[in-house]
Amino acid sequence: MRSLALMRVLGVLVAGALAALTLAACNRGGDSAAAKPVVALVVKTLNNPFFIEMEAGAREVADSLGYELLVQAPEREIDVERQMQIVENLIQRRVSVLALVPNGSRELVPAVVKANGADIPVVIVDTRLDAATLSAAGGRIATFVGSDNVDGGRLAGRFLVEALPSGGQIAVLEGIPGHETGDARLTGFREALASAPSLRIVASQTANWERDQAFTVTQNLLQAHPDLEALFACNDVMALGAVEAIAAAGRTDRIRVVGFDAQDDAQQAIREGRMAATIAQNPRAMGRLAVLSAARLLAGDTLPAEQPVPISLVK
Amino acid sequence: MRWWRRRETGTMVGLLLLCVALFIATPYFATVDNLRNVAEQSTVIGTLAIGMTFVIIAGGIDLSVGSVVALSGVVLAMTLRAGTGAAIAVALALLVGAATGAVNGALVTIGRLPPFIATLGTMSVARGLALLLADGRPISGFPDGLRALATARWFGLPVSVMVMLGLFAIAQLVLTRTVLGRFTFAIGGNAEAARLAGIPVRGYTTGTYVIAGVSAALCATLLLARLNSAQPIAGIGYELDAIAAVVIGGTSLLGGSGSVLGTLLGALLMSVLRNGLNLLGVSSYIQQIAIGTVIVSAVLVDMALQRRLRHTPS
Amino acid sequence: MPSTVGTTTPATTPRLQMRGVRKAFPGVVALDGVDLEVRAGEVHVLLGENGAGKSTLINVLGGALRPDAGAIALNGETVAFSSPRDARARGIAIVHQELALVPALSVAENLLLGAPPARAGFVQRAQLHAEAAAALTVLDPSIDVRQPVSALRLGQQQLVEIARAMRGHPAVLVLDEPTSALTPHEVTRLFDGIRRLTASGTSVIYISHRMDEIAVIGDRITVLRDGRHVTTVPAHPLQHEQLVRWMANRDDVAGDAAADPMPATAEASRVVHRDPRVTPSAGATSRLRVHALSRRGALYDISFSADAGEIVGFAGLLGAGRTELARALFGVDRLDAGEVFVDGLRVHCTHPGDAIRAGFGFVTEDRKGDGLLLMRSVRENIALPLLRSLARFGVVPRPSETTLAEDAVRDLRIRTPSVQQSVLALSGGNQQKVVLAKWLATGARILLLDEPTRGIDVAAKAEIHALIRSLAARGVTVLLFSSELPELLTLADRTLVLRGGRLVGDVARADSSAERLLALAVGAVDAETHAGSAA
């Protein structure tokens, strides 16, 4: 009977501790308190090529500067609590600078406040924090690196206005409600459409930034709106899902799809004629700029509150 | 049973050894601040797993708890925003949790649906209701009162941790000492024998689902305090984490045995593991593999244990 | 009916020889150097208490366990089985007590499980059914091999399992309690099948506690005790008392042949003196009165009464309604019509809780299936129905529970190291005592016992019989539902016979005999009632 408790110990220990130990061995590299500056980049999820591009850009600069770069993210963009935990843990890790792409524009404010309390400068990337909540909580960030999503939305809207001079029905795929990026893009898009009353948005549903959800939602929208002429998805991941659904329904020629992010797959789709256009945000540049900002912060500079990264239309 | 033979001891030792390993691997683990964080991070799944423990011991399973977290969270948030006092708002959220639990219980006992299917259904329905009520958007901006759960400290620990520990203590007492607890074990061990002994099996089974629903509502309260917002999409996947905590803690998925103490250790173990992997900068993908491995080994050991027990010569 | 011994040639090497077999588990030595020798074509009975090592020995023989020491020789050739499959391939077939049939598959598919006749991967249905029917001709040709096994009665399922093992013409066939669910008619057919098998050379190892069967089918008997071989004797003449003495290792066995099934011995007349105040008397208000109970498809117009301190037996074939009656009285199944009176007051039991409150206790026929919480302790099992009444504000005080359990353990002489011991580790007899203790603790005054000594070794059976008698002496009304006629004959003051859901006989002890009861049960004679049992 003694062996039963021992077996438990073995079972639980082997997996957990061994995982930690072996990976620790891999990860160590002369890790002592202040040898190399450590920059932490916490993105929304690593399941989105957008953020993988961002990581690549960040790593370029980090390597050239000799910084250590830690990239962490929750499994899904919807997991706000998990991202908060990651930030808390990295604060414990005493990183030198925290670069964060928040999963919740309001929800991550407490985490930023904790970073402030630990004297870790915070760089917000791509998705803004809600200003009111931030100031109410007494938090502060060093700088914001990102594109003007409103402008990007406008670009997308203008493209469709030009592409459909005689007007038509448009469907919209939204991101996770409450995400500032999605909201901003929608705002810009609607603004641009205001100048062309013949273009009507007949449906606006969320697919939570996810490809398979976008597929299903688009399939349903196609059923409900047989005369659809265009679709705007707030990011390429969703746009590609929509493209698949449209192809499955055999309406590729009749519906123009506009995405956002200019991912490789999207650009390929545009070349092949399956997609009409996308907005290039240049996540790689964002990543580079984020780490560069970190470097400047560590050198003692103050940074402008906003560092826009230019966007362009790709068609 | 001698203490060194209990299942919880194994998990406890595993947890301690993990801590020792992390202590060696990184200097950032064993600081007061970090340990406090870990404790706080475990409250979300920990609270949820209390109710799940009851359900699993009684031989069932509840997949809907993640959605109930969202639903009761949304109800809590809307009530708070409408200006009601925190106490009433929390009570209402608990009621919502209890109601979903009652529905689950009815489906399982009267409807005779397998718990897996019944709670799969309520999982969808509750999620839909949450999205409907909140119109798909997160609700935020609450008066400070409730937030104190996350921000305030008692004896150096965040209030949420104290609340969680208190809930665990109560649950442990209920499971081991009260009629409700004993009947839960009996029903999970042999529902027919329990029925023949005069136990109202249907009523007590429903009771466990109600407890799970209330746990989910409590979890939603803690989440709201921590994030200062209630999202209708919150809690997706939480039911699996809760089940993992229960299973790692030594409760058998077949029902009839287990403890809430083990669940607490299981939840802590998962938090420590995640925390450690974050501190070590391990890629998120590997983190997922690590957690999965721990769960599988815990269940493997559990199954092997059951087989050993069945084979004792009689 | 002496058994026809097959081709037993003592001069040749024995079919099976197990020598010095040892097997130890952590904490217990199950086999301590056991010898067993079985001749070709003989029916060799293996006798022993639970815990004597029979199951372990069979598991070693069947390849499921590897012996720590010792040798097994088949037809003189030493063998070592690496797995059950290996043993099967060598000609060892074992039919365990627990059926290993697949309920959803048909009888034919089960009979040829693992090797259905097939061509290019497709199963040949016609051939499958033909072979299956052939395999069943001796044991039970009435079974339709196309129906799913789950549709068969337990007894028929048992026969299917046995037929499956016999089909392979094994060198050694082991039958573990094969008749527990068989009707006497089926038992006869089984014995026919066994005789045919032994005539063709198969050796049969027969494990059973039923002395009357052993007398009919056995050639030799080996007694095991505490993992050791005690003796091997011819089955004729059957020395009952001596065999029991060899098997039991305790001096306080309640009477030598307390489990003696032969009604003609002194045991039957060893009536425990009862308190005259609770002697069954026709005039007083009966403890239990049942009137016109009916349940569609199971019970028809059943009426009887039972007094305090009376042991009323219920006999009948499988499916006659014994268990159904017990379940209906206990509120497990619903009654369509009829009334039940306890101490003159009408009771309406729709739920076991009602029955418990009315003073009933129900020891089911499957203690592991629905009588016990196997993973929990003795204490928890005994206290289960009483938890709510023991509790203060919902909390159960441990000391009162422990005292309750300890008293019960002492009272019923349950053999367990402590009340915290898990019941899984107890022997069958002690497990059954725990079940009894559970009901006695509730103060049950009407005990429904459904096959109370099934799967229990001879010595424990004697203890339980003595227990039942002493309970009756204390004034408890015992309704004993049993398929073992000898048991009914020994214990019951009167025996009611059920057939097809109806009461067809009420026979007083003095007039009872196995033949009489059996005749009523199968319908060989018409229904008759004892004069004094007016309902």
Tell me the layout of helices and strands:
The complex is a heterotrimer of chains A (about 325), B (about 325) and C (about 525).
Chain A: H1 2-27, E1 38-42, H2 49-65, E2 68-72, H3 80-92, E3 97-100, H4 109-117, E4 122-125, H5 131-137, E5 143-146, H6 149-163, E6 168-174, H7 180-194, E7 199-206, H8 211-224, E8 228-233, H9 236-248, E9 256-258, H10 264-271, E10 278-280, H11 283-298, E11 306-308, E12 312-314
Parallel strand pairs in A: 1-2, 1-3, 3-4, 4-5, 5-11, 6-7, 6-8, 8-9
Antiparallel strand pairs in A: 10-12
Chain B: H1 7-25, H2 32-57, H3 65-81, H4 86-109, H5 115-134, E1 139-140, H6 144-151, E2 153-154, E3 157-158, H7 159-177, H8 179-189, H9 191-196, H10 201-227, E4 229-230, H11 238-248, H12 260-279, H13 284-310
Helix pairs in contact in B: 1-12, 2-7, 2-8, 2-10, 2-11, 2-12, 3-4, 3-5, 3-10, 4-5, 4-10, 6-10, 7-8, 8-10, 11-12, 11-13, 12-13
Chain C: E1 16-25, E2 28-38, E3 43-47, H1 54-61, E4 69-74, E5 77-79, H2 84-89, E6 92-95, H3 107-111, E7 118-119, E8 122-123, H4 125-136, H5 154-167, E9 172-176, H6 184-199, E10 203-207, H7 211-217, E11 220-225, E12 228-234, H8 240-247, E13 288-295, E14 299-306, E15 311-316, H9 322-329, E16 337-342, E17 345-347, H10 352-358, E18 360-363, H11 367-371, H12 378-383, H13 387-390, H14 398-412, H15 428-441, E19 446-450, H16 458-473, E20 477-481, H17 485-491, E21 494-499, E22 502-508, H18 514-522
Helix pairs in contact in C: 14-15
Largest sheet of chain B: 2 strands, antiparallel
The interface involving the most residues is between: A-B, 57 and 72 residues
- Beta-strand content of chain C: 15-25%
Class inferred from helices and paired strands of chain C: alpha/beta
Radius of gyration of chain B, in angstroms, nearest whole number? 19 Å
